[in-house]
Each structure stands twice: as C-alpha cells, then as structure tokens.
Amino acid sequence: MKSLVRKIIFYGVSLFLLSQLFDGIKISGGILTYAIGAIGLSVMCMTIKPILSILTLPLNIATMGLFSFLINAVILYLLTVLVSNIRISSFTFESLSFAGFVVPKIYINTFFAFIVLSIGLSIFVGFLSWLIKK
Description:
By secondary structure, this protein is of the alpha+beta class.
C-alpha cells in the first residue's frame, strides 16, 4: 500500500514537472487532473506495462532496452485517451547554448513528443525513486 501511494505521488510530481518544463504537454483542470493522471499512470504501469514488456521482449533485447521508451510512450498515449484534460502535442525546443556547445532550435512532432515526454517521465520518476531509496 505504501509503495502504491509513493508511486502515485512520484507520477503526480513528474507530470507537474513535465508540464512546467515542456510546452508539448498541457494539463488543464488543476490538482484533480494531476491526481487522476497520477493514479492512471501508476495503475497502467503496474498492469499494462509488464504485459507489453513481455510481449516486446525480443525487441527490447535487440535494442538493449531502448524499446522501453516506446512502451512508456504507449502508456502516455493511453493516459491522454483516458484523461481528457491531459493533451500532448507537437512543440518546438528552443535553442540552447552552454559552454561552447550549441543545440539549435528543433521542431518535435507529436510522435516524438510522446517519446521525449516518456523519457522525461522516466528520468523524473527514477530521480524521485533514487531520492527516497531505502
């Protein structure tokens, strides 16, 4: 029970951070939508994700684990279908310059927006799990 509540909180905080960091995810409806989205994500990650991981195990092995981001993108797509106040759309990543490295302005279409946001979600949830590690 404690781990379920922890996952719900992690996914809720991660959804909030994603909506603040990326322009491609729009969450309307306030804290209730974040809570419903977090509950939906945690339930889907506990039920649908293991099934998809087993079904796509050969692809995941062949890509050395990178296919799991596509599974997470499918989970995010299902979340946008189930929760109508969460929308993911295409966005433009503005240019970035740091210590002599320049990343140009990049347009990210909707398919890659799901993948970029699933990578961000994995990073945020992993970081929060690392912080609370026992």
